[in-house]
Amino acid sequence: IMNPKHIIIDTDPGIDDSLALLLAAASPEIVLDGVIAVHGNVSTEQTTKNALSVLELAGLSQVPVFKGCDLPLVKESLLSPETHGGNGLGYAQLQESATQPKAQHGSDFLIEQIMSYPGEITLVAIGPLTNVALAIRKEPRIVQNVKEVFIMGGAIQHPGNTTALAEYNTYVDPHAAHIVFHSGMPMILTPLDVTYQCIFTKDDLNRLLKIDSPVTKFIADSTRFYMEFHDEYQSIDGCVINDPMTLALTFMPEICDYQDLVVDVDISTGVGLGNTFGDFYNYEKKPKNMKVAMGVRPRMFMELFLERMEKLALKIS
Length: 317
Ligand code: RIB
Ligand code: CA
Description:
Elements: E1 5-11, H1 15-25, E2 30-37, H2 44-57, E3 65-67, H3 81-84, H4 106-116, E4 121-125, H5 130-138, H6 142-145, E5 148-152, H7 168-172, H8 174-181, E6 187-190, H9 192-195, E7 199-200, H10 202-208, H11 214-234, E8 239-240, H12 242-248, E9 256-261, E10 263-265, E11 276-278, E12 290-296, H13 298-315
Parallel strand pairs: 1-2, 1-4, 2-3, 4-5, 5-6, 6-12
Antiparallel strand pairs: 7-8, 9-12, 10-11
Helix pairs in contact: 1-2, 1-11, 1-12, 4-5, 5-8
């Protein structure tokens, strides 16, 4: 493969975040330069541990992990044990990694990498945007120097998954999302509008379980919890794997159709807090600030994901 993309993942593992890390390990189109942990599904202490353990499981212990912010910029912390379990990985129990996180703060690592390799770093942000917002405020020149930013977040014309109007990542730190959305970075957003059309089912899981590997065992134990949540809260049979889909778009953009839109996030204190909305008719005559995935070919993504997980499971057994 010519020129693999250099990727940094900012993440709050988290079950689907972990699946994104596994997909990264199985995808030769990308090079993972580092992982930054953020608060979200569980505390940053725990997301850091989980990132290290999942990377070790995937044979990626050499990828450096950095701890980021443990609290949103303005709001109080909001973890989601009901969705991802108390340790963030559902029923999975991974052993603690032998590797330690690096001492540098995640936002500083992000700044250092983007400024050292102008135009070359692709950021994939699949948790609340606190670390990214902090980095923008600390070194605004990263806006012109990052290659592109893929963001899992928002629900444009789709109901929220945390409040009636808001998606989890934007609800947990709407002020950070506001800073990032208005920063001028080249952004590609993967909202619930497309992720909720891609369901990882029990049949998909059974296909993976034909291969006996710690990788398939981890996927089974973590998604079993996640599927119970989807069943109980949303009557969905299976689970929505938002975060690996966002990563997949970095090297297989044809999975989705995109619209250039003006997207904003509500940071007022009413029922709409964290709501993301697109100005489809451009009433405000503002320049479009991001590309938004609004259409998806679900099987194209699911096949890619399943094939890559099979490949990884065969390698690690
Ligand atoms: O709304 C989906 C997002 O929040 C994903 O990043 C997932 O990890 C979740 O908790
Ligand atoms: Ca996440």
